[in-house]
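Quick check before the chapter quiz. The format below is the same one you will see on the exam, so make sure you can read both the input and the output lines.
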Amino acid sequence: MGPLTYSPRNIRLYIPNIPPHPQVIDHYEHPRNVGSLPKNDPDVGTGLVGAPACGDVMKLQIRVDETTGKITEVKFKTFGCGSAIASSSFMTERVRGMTLDEAGGIKNTEIAKELCLPPVKMHCS
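Here is the expected output.
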């Protein structure tokens, strides 16, 4: 048997008997804001986070307007399961236009709830 590749059909294989929520499929099949920003730009911040439970890794970059203090651009690259990719994509849409304090107040439980992720996938949000 070859390596498992992720698609809407086999996301179900990763979480037996629980079909993924339509938003998870949408953000997985059509991830928003994938890519990178120039890391040396003074208004760009970069963060890297991983989930030791499964090996998922996400790089997140934001551009913050110095005048308003709001996030104007967001990019991500996630190497992980479909739920991790969908959560990253969803989050980039949510934080655009927020201040750093507002964005920092978002809890992973909120993202998991919005995407209807099962408890076994909480670490992906």
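If your answer matched, good. The chain has five helices and three strands.
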